Amino acid sequence: MTAVTTSRRELLRWVGAASATGIAGCAGGSDDGTELVATLAADVSTYDPTLANDTTSRKAFDLIYEPLVAVDFDGTAHPVLATALDRRDDRTWRITLREGVTFHDGSEFTAADVKASFERYEGTPRESDVFLWYDDATIRDENTLDVTLSAPYAPFRLSLGGVPIVPEAAATAELDLSNRPVGTGPYAFDAHEPDRFYRLTRAADHWYEGGDAPDTPPIETITFRIIVEQSAQVAALQSGDVHLANNPPADGVADLREDDAITVTDRLAGGFEMLVFPLATPPFSNRDVREGISRLIPRDEIVSSVYGGIGRPAHAPVSPLLDDYTSESFLAEMADEHMRYDPERARELLADGFAALDISPPYEATIVTNETGDRVRWAQLVRDELDATDFFDVSIEQFEWNTYVERVLAGDSHRSDAMMALGWSGGWDPDTYLRTLFYSEQATPACCNAAHYANDEVDRLLDEALTTYDTATRRDYYERAQRLIVADAPVGFVRFGTRIEAFRTDAVEGFRTYPVDSGEFTAIYAPWAGAYTTTGGG
Amino acid sequence: MPRNPLDGRGRLRVRGFDAGADDTAGAGVDADADDTSTATGATDRRRRAWARFRRDRAAVAGLVIIALMAALAVFARPVEVGGVVVQPFALAPYDPAASGVAPTYHPPSLAHPFGTDWAGRDVFSRVVYGGRYSLSIGVIAVAVALLVGVPLGAVAGYVGGWVDEAVMRVVDVLYAFPFLVLAIALVAVFGQGFWRLVGALVAVGWIGYARLVRGEVLSVAERDYVLAARALGVRDRRILARHVVPNAIAPVVVQATLNVGTVVLSAAALGFLGLGLQPGTAEWGSMLSAGRDTLVGGEWWVTVFPGLAIFLFVLSINLVGDGMRDALDPSVDADVDARRTREVR
Amino acid sequence: MSLRRYVLRRVLLTVPILLGVSVLTFGLVKLLPGTPVDYVLQFQESTPELRATLRAQYHLDEPIWRQYFLWLHDVLHLDFGERIASDGSVSAAVAERLPETLLLGGVALLIALLVGVPAGVVAAVRRGSLLDEGSRVAALAGIATPNFWLGLLLLLLFGVRLDLVPVIPPVAPPLAPESLAFLVLPAITLGTASAALFTRLTRSAVTEQLRREYVRAARARGLDERTVIVKHVLRNSLISVVTVAALQVAVLLDGAVVVERVFSWPGLGRLLVRAILQRDFPVVQAVVLLVATGVVFANLLADVLYAWLDPRITY
């Protein structure tokens, strides 16, 4: 298997290189067709969805595989490989599959492939993508499948969007996805030179036809250049060596905006940055202290200094992106009552809290962060605010990613004297922003409730909301849960995330920013959403 | 080439030595003298060395620059020891850590000669204050490495035998180890911060001195006066301390001076990889690393000034080190030493 | 002892040294907080069963010495194992990147020699002049610039402002003209410090040679200056230069880590740093062992060359 990998990659390398010498550096310079050069900030580590825990790999195979249902730019689910989803009862969904679809290796797409795709998640790092809700599937015929859930699951449709469908042969040893990914998507895997580039080419027989978008993807080849150093990424965009850069550093955005040759788009995303409090350690065990610290987070200054004015402050976990579940008035209410920046009120609260615990200030604490530039900076601004009050003497500890993850997710994270600067990103459903962070049983090390926040009422509300299918009811549950969470302030919310893309104006047309992680390149060709990109001039 | 077993002074030629060195013998100890005249000889030598150093214009310029930078660093902001203000002057107009003293990313102006950074902090104050970190990291890391490496190397060279073998094998293993792996690992284990950084640099730095001293000691230990002292029954420790080490020390001092520069650069490189000091520290390397995205953008002042500071500091210290080398040992040209002791990093 | 015994002894010593390096590496990476499981699972919900499965997969619950010997046993059968944080075998990952780093390092060393040696010769011949002092300061200036900053500045100047070279490696065979054109900037960045070193070294070696009897004799015989320098002095000086060049291997790797990142060069340096940060033990062990072997043999070569070429040295 090893030898095959190496020789196959070698072959592809020379083939790719030979055909690429004409393309190097120029859009559409080859006679085969058009090429889009985009960037990835890290190397692609795997082609197998069950193993891909890094967003880079998921972004990279997003165009190769397709899910049953896909979510568009506004959060609506569209049929892709499934043409109909019928809820038979609380726990059973009947899925009607699209006919006439073939995988890149020529095999037919049938219900057996779907069932195999689900079940192979067992025992893999991405197990929870499926087994959170999946119990069993019954194949009724080639194009119909009944899925049984372990409990009613409201985000079922949205969750399906996160499960790429692979051939049944991948579940046995016949097909090794790690060698070469095989899906039904509009693009097929072409070549991967580790640390150099990752390339896709238009697939031969994509099923889409007769709609808003062209039947075949306008762009023939997509080459992802792997550029780790952010300043090099911006430089490559400016010099025209790449056409599309995602998430340029905040320092570079202002200058890119001024450049006429480059268009910068930003879009409010679903995640947020927060400061997590170790609830078991005084003074963080006191609610007034926590609200006081939250009211000292200089959100507006952070948005302007650290993020160049892009994005908006966060006072609650569910982002305005999910407009079915939250509203401006709700967010304003949360801000006014518990979180908004107010140094005077903060000092009162801190004084009360410290007095109640009988601790004399200043209290020495640390903020733990990883090396992400933005996070490091907002942590510094928060530190400056806290130090200015004389209640705290804060220093910042920066760790490289793995050490940082280990500290944040350690079982005793709530007992250290370190606040944790953390960034969270979720999907289209509010559950993804609440349960793993605030549900009592998700306390580290099970998952990500680093504060070890435990509130029975919140647990109950989250459970109810997850198993109720009616959106209005869910919205009510989530608002009530958020009110409790924000009032308890186990974390201080800082800013809602944004996704920023920068691309060369003359080389990229029709590209849109997808607000959820790992869907960056959706707009290159998503006919089911009416989105497609062309290479403009070149 | 015919080999004369005796050198110009009638002593046996020592193995491994370059022919040129022995001829002048000004490089080594005056072997025929006893204890007291060794002392006078040493003072004379030092005076002569200083005179030679003064004649080297570039080296003197380097020394002046270092002195200036040190002064700036000390007088940048007031220094308090245990509540008592030891140094009240503040050459840096603003607190290096104070954010928001001016608009962010303001280009150089009269009020802020080096401009401001992303948080509205005065870059000039930070650069001036930052000298403290570079100087202290450089001096401390090198000093501690010396304290570890010199005794180990001296003992290894003098005692010989299995002690020598053991120490040298450890040195070989560490030598083959890529420095960066060691540094990353140490910083990841112990976290980031001043002392951890120093620790990582010391863990790697002592090797060079141990090797160098061992080589010197090996050659000096064969000299007549040492053999004579041993024969007379003088204790080894005394011989080591009073005769062997002082004469082996010259190349070590030179190497140490040069290594101060290397240490500062290594600290900057670690900062680049995200393993430096606490975020926001006004250390030159950290400033360079934190601001590097601005190079593309056009806010050049954020990195150019700290970069120039590092450049000037390392250049000057290297000029001083080179000058010291030429001054202490004019006949044995610079890198013959290095060849002899395989220490050329 | 004779040269042959010396060489034999040194070669035999490489085995315990390499063993020592592998033990030290293994111990260090195991000391790091966090395990590959933390990296693989990250912010995912996980059941205790899943965590246990993964831990067993990576042998994390076995005693450390046993983990080490498992690894050592595989290595002796030339099996470097599978990567943890990515798909694929360790040997393939290393084999893909080794040529890139060798190319970068080789060109850097070449540039350093081509620049440093002539500069050193000129400085020695015109000793004490402004040219000599100037070259000395220039050499030291080369060392004094942080290499990542130099690299970024060069990249911006030649890649963006002047648009003479691409900012990222072109997609072309390694020896194609555009690839070599791109390679110049990172090689210069990497080689600057070594060039400075070679300048000073050559200068002192040539100066020393010029003082020798045979030079005076050659001049007295009527040979012109150029022949004296090129045919005799240079040849003898190059002994030390060559031996030092072999030692630069270790230095170049450290520099390569930084330069590869700035110029997006797909080499071993990037792989190594990433593997350490991901706690990918098999990859770290393999790369460090490879590099250490290179360094050890380079040192050996240097010492042997030196001992062989310089008849005054006996052991």
Written overview of the protein:
- The complex is a heterotrimer of chains A (538), B (345) and C (315).
- Chain A has 16 helices and 19 strands.
- Chain A is α+β, with helices and mostly antiparallel strands and 538 residues long.
- In chain A, strands 11, 12, 13, 14, 15, 16 and 17 form a seven-stranded mixed sheet that branches. In chain A, strands 1-10-9-8 form a four-stranded mixed sheet.
- The two termini of chain A are 40 Å apart.
- Chain B is mainly alpha-helical and 345 residues long.
- Chain C is 77% helix and 0% strand.
- Chain C is globular, with a radius of gyration of 24 Å.
- Chain C starts with a helix and ends in a 6-residue tail after the last helix.
- The relative contact order of chain C is 0.15.
- The chains are: A alpha+beta (538), B mainly alpha (345), C mainly alpha (315).
- Chains in contact: A-B, A-C, B-C.
- At the B-C interface, helix 5, helix 6, helix 9, helix 10 and helix 12 of B face helix 1, helix 6, helix 7, helix 8 and helix 10 of C.
Using brief descriptors, characterize the structure shown.
heterotrimer; B: 345 residues; mainly alpha; MetI-like fold; two-stranded antiparallel ribbon; 2 strands; 2% strand; elongated; disordered C terminus; C: 315 residues; 12 helices; 0% strand
The biggest sheet of chain B amounts to: 2 strands, antiparallel
Q: Biggest sheet of chain C, open or closed, and with what strands and sense?
A: none
Q: What is the CATH topology descriptor of chain B?
A: MetI-like fold
Helix-strand sequence of chain C: HHHHHHHHHHHH
Q: What's the architecture of chain B in CATH terms?
A: Orthogonal Bundle
